[in-house]
Amino acid sequence: MNTIHEARCLVAGEWLTEGAYSDRIGPYVREPVSRARTTQPGDIDAALAYARRATRFVARLAPATRADILERAAASVCEQGERLARLLALELGKPLKDGRGEVLRVADTLSVAAAEARMIGGEVLPVAGWGRGIGNTAITQRAPAGPVLAITPFNAPANLLAHKLAASFAAGNTTIVKPPPQAPAVSTALVEILLAAGMPVEAVQVLHGGGDVGARLCAAPQIAVVSFTGGVTAGHAVAHAAGPKRVMLELGGNAATIVCEDADIGQAALVCARTGFSNSGQSCISVQRVYVHRTRFEAFAESLTAEVKALVVGDPLDPGTDVGCMVDDDAAERVVSWTAEAAGQGARVATGGTREGAVMAPTVVLAPPAEARVVREEVFGALVAVLPYDDFDDVLAECNRSAYGLQAGLFTHDVRRIVTAWRELEVGGLVVNGSSNFRLDHVPFGGVKDSGMGRESPRWMIEDFTVTKTLMLKGLTIWGDE
Q: What is the average pLDDT across 197-226?
């Protein structure tokens, strides 16, 4: 029997313990692993009122103070890495090796946010370059935007919370966190680490719950900025509820990776196998569609299938496991049904296509029709579809047929193809000689079309979490009077 980890709500500076709780059943261990204190309507009202009161206090903290806190938290995350990775394995079925990787990224993200906090400033504008500006001086600064609402997803709950909360705090804002119901304990644990590192209680609140809690918070006039990561349907609902607020949406994907005829087929297959099934494919940039030049298609399919069959599937708490389980049985069953549907449409299932509970066998589907759901829709699961192509321009157009546009991969050594793909692909980022599933946390990340709006990573998020304020000094100039 595993210890049941308690996730309390943090409202107005106090951890709330009284009230109803809901259990999270671990998708692999099949028993309760955590319990979250359920948010009550009065909690939301109290949190919103407190956020408004806390705004000025947090804004007055010096950037150096914020940075020091984030750096201490980064060090603490590293010290508590095994505990956090184990929570990810229990609550989500994420293998320890993936959880450890996420924890390292959390520490990096906090450190990057600390560095960016030290860089927040403004500029002296060249007003004297125009006649009416002569004799005056204008200065800008980046000021905190106001209370931020951070709604995080289950697939990378720790690192994506770190991105939102650390950037908001670095910018001088107070934040209300609405964690995913599937990962309440690990989300709460990260907030506790930040508080222990010196983050003032005025800077963060935590409200557990479902879409109803998120909807009320999004619509609240006290919230200045909403940062949401999740599915497209939920993202549209968030934008509708938020109205005219600032809204950043990091939504779904249907990531394509192109393997050209000059690529190292063995290396491309190895990379696609490892990045297509990490976290059971539950990533918005997970390798889903791999387009391979027809002359190399069979060789790639054979290599990929062999690499996928070599993956170790099973207990996420076993350090040797490569693929654990999906978030729940329904998610795994959906991938099974889509696989069978593609097979019925003429595709060949090279491996996988079955499940045991929430454990989805890593699945490779060869040459499905272009309109199959495993090609057109976001699978968000342990499945990779491999399709042949003949012409490079045509495959770029085929990639762009997707309603999504988050990130793509390209294996080639041809600089002309690289530049053409970077120019023509309707995505937020292109990874060359790597798959779509690669991200550096200090590099801008986000998509176009149904993949959302805005860019994540601390520097770019701080821009969204601050506003430009201008100081105009009439009759005072540093540029000269004439």
A: 97
Separation of first and last alpha carbons in the chain: 81
Other Cβ atoms closer than 10 A to 124: 12
Annotated active-site positions, please?
250, 284
Summary count for the chain: helices (H), strands (E): 15, 25
Cβ contact 55:200 at 8 Å: no
Beta bridge partners of 227: 150, 248
Q: How far apart are CA 39 and CA 125, in angstroms?
A: 47
Q: How many CB atoms lie within 10 A of CB 178?
A: 24
Place of tokens 């609902």: 237
45 Cβ contact partners less than 8 Å away, ≥ 6 residues apart: none
Q: Are strands 383-389 and 404-405 parallel, antiparallel or unpaired?
A: unpaired
Residue 92 confidence (pLDDT): 98
pLDDT tens for residues 410-443?
A: 999 999 999 999 999 999 999 999 999 999 999 9
Answer whether 327's CB lies under 8 Å from 282's CB.
yes
How many Cα atoms sit within 13 Å of 172 on the Cβ side?
A: 20
Among 371, 369, 427, residue whose Cα is nearest residue 396: 427
φ and ψ at residue 262, rounded to 5 degrees = -90, 5
Residue with structure tokens 């309707």?
Answer: 426
Separation between Cα atoms, residue 311 and residue 273, nearest integer Å: 8
**Kind of pairing between the strands at 122-125 and 137-144:** antiparallel
Cα 279–Cα 281–Cα 285 angle in degrees, nearest 5: 105
